[in-house]
Design a protein that fits this description.
Elements: H1 2-40, E1 44-45, E2 51-60, E3 63-75, E4 82-89, E5 92-97, H2 106-112
Antiparallel strand pairs: 1-3, 2-3, 3-4, 4-5
Length: 134
């Protein structure tokens, strides 16, 4: 009886280690994908890391697959932190959510005194003013 319980314990431990290794490699792939997407969109990936935010089942071509959501933070101008998310199925990127920014020339902002109203459902972001400690 003790041989059977030792075997089951060893199998459970092996399954836990295998799952941990698989999730670690998936996280490393998510970091690579986040870094690549930030570089492509002109953003800075902060902390060079991602964190698992959620797991869900999704139907793709009639099959149910597991989709993982990773959260991370990016900087638009080097003085802010904005959230970003990416969803992955296996090693493939299935969806991406990054902050957007609309920069205006200083003359246009100064002439109007305010930012222009956004068109449609897009809300423009602007860089936050830097706090200067002297």
């Amino acid at each position: 009886m003790s041989d059977l319980s030792n075997l089951l314990l060893l199998l459970a431990l092996g399954a836990i280690v295998g799952l941990w290794l698989k999730l670690s490699s998936a996280r490393e792939r998510a970091v690579q994908e986040a870094r690549q997407q930030c570089q492509q969109h002109g953003l800075q990936l902060l902390d060079e890391t991602v964190g698992l935010r959620g797991v869900r089942l999704r139907r793709v071509n009639g099959l149910r697959v597991i989709e993982r959501c990773y959260g991370f933070e990016v900087s638009i101008d080097g003085h802010d932190r904005e959230p970003g998310r990416l969803w992955m199925i296996g090693n493939a990127l299935s969806s991406l959510s990054l902050p957007t920014i609309e920069l205006l020339p200083h003359q246009e902002v100064a002439a109007r005194g305010t930012l222009p109203s956004p068109s449609g459902n897009v809300v423009p972001l602007r860089p936050r003013p830097r706090d200067r400690l002297n």
